[in-house]
Design a protein that fits this description.
It contains 12 helices and 11 strands. The chain is an alpha+beta fold. The strands form 2 sheets. The chain has a 9-stranded antiparallel β-sheet with strand order 5-2-4-3-11-8-10-9-6. The protein has a two-stranded antiparallel sheet with strand order 1-7. The N and C termini lie far apart (about 60 Å).
Length: about 350
């Protein structure tokens, strides 16, 4: 990557232009032509540095239930277990991590689905010996923006762009027209001069109206941002560390807010604790190396004074994708798995 590629990646992670000719707008910002912007992004996709460019929605604001899940699986069955879990359409992330709980995944399900039962069935199918459901109790930060140009300090800070207050802003009714728009805008954006036009035709409106409605979804709290998602390792960020923190209850909110201000922290949540899991605050830290991640952990520790912490690094990535909202795949999975599990339980009883 040259300097223009790196600047381009920094820009499109923060926000991709919601304009009829977005690549032209990018070109103007970077002093390159529209065709050069398109060609560079095509090359970055082919090199598996850019994963996807699309709308990124707030799962819970859309009415979906979601949670992080930690599972213990015997090592010799780990790959097979991961493949079973990956078949669920709401599983967007699935990693092996270096902890006794060695398989970690996120799952989202539509409003009328029993989330806990879905996790229970997945755990049974995967042969998990122990499983912990860790939903978000409070969101302090969500949003990955990697400093590809390398101009920021590893321990640099910035105000989070998306927090609990953004999610709670989604109070206006979500309509059938909104659902249709979500279905269209969650798709990967084509590398052509007028990439929004097909979605506008499908919706039966002008491109300008399509983009206005998309911006309105953001104002109403349903859309987090329209941006690029990168393959972290290919982009140079080879270390991915989930750090869990043991913080007294009376200091958890303040500590979470402090953690969320570190630029290297992409996600920061308050989650429930268990007898065998005393860690209430979760942060995801991305670095070019483990040393970078360790430096951020030390800086956070100096500010929040935890009673304990654990650094849990990714070992293998089994799945990383975007949830496809309002997809018939959810009903198909429920019919094949939840219904079958219920029937089997009835027969056993």
């Amino acid at each position: 990557m040259d300097s223009i590629d790196k600047a381009l990646l920094n820009v499109i992670q923060k926000g991709f232009p919601l304009e009829p000719r977005p690549y032209e707008a990018l070109g103007q910002k970077l002093s390159i032509s529209e065709s050069d912007a398109i060609a560079r992004l095509k090359d970055l996709r082919d090199a598996r540095i850019v994963r996807q460019i699309s709308a990124i929605f707030d799962t819970r604001a859309l009415g979906y239930q979601s949670t992080l899940v930690a599972a213990k699986v015997r090592f010799e069955h780990l790959s097979a277990a991961a493949q079973v879990i990956n078949k669920h359409p709401g599983v967007s992330h699935n990693y092996e991590r270096d902890n006794d709980f060695n398989l970690w995944f996120t799952i989202a399900v539509p409003p009328d689905t029993d989330l806990e039962r879905s996790v229970e069935v997945l755990g049974d199918q995967a042969g998990a010996t122990s499983i912990r459901i860790l939903p978000t109790l409070q969101l302090f930060k969500i949003g990955v923006t990697l400093d590809i140009e390398g101009t920021e300090k590893v321990t640099g800070k910035s105000d989070p762009e998306y927090t609990q207050s953004n999610r709670e802003g989604a109070t206006t009714p979500f309509t059938a027209e909104d659902e249709h728009l979500v279905r269209l805008m969650q798709e990967d954006l084509a590398a052509v001069p007028l990439p929004y036009d097909p979605a506008a035709r499908e919706l039966g409106v002008s491109t300008e109206e399509l983009l206005k409605r998309t911006a309105d979804l953001k104002e109403r709290g349903y859309l987090r941002r329209f941006a690029a998602i990168l393959y972290h390792r290919k982009a140079g960020f080879k270390a991915n560390c989930m750090v869990v923190w043991q913080i007294p209850e009376d200091r958890q909110v303040e500590a979470g807010q402090r953690m969320g201000r570190f630029s290297a922290v992409s996600h920061c949540y308050l989650r429930p604790v268990y007898e065998d899991w005393p860690y209430s605050l979760f942060t995801m830290i991305h670095g070019r190396s483990r040393q970078d991640c360790d430096e951020v952990v030390e800086a956070i520790s100096a500010e929040v004074s935890p009673e304990g912490l654990a650094k849990i690094y990714s070992v293998r990535e089994f799945k990383k994708t975007r949830v496809r909202y309002f997809s018939p795949e959810f009903e198909d999975w429920d019919r094949r798995n939840l219904t079958l599990a219920a029937q089997t339980a009835g027969i056993s009883a």
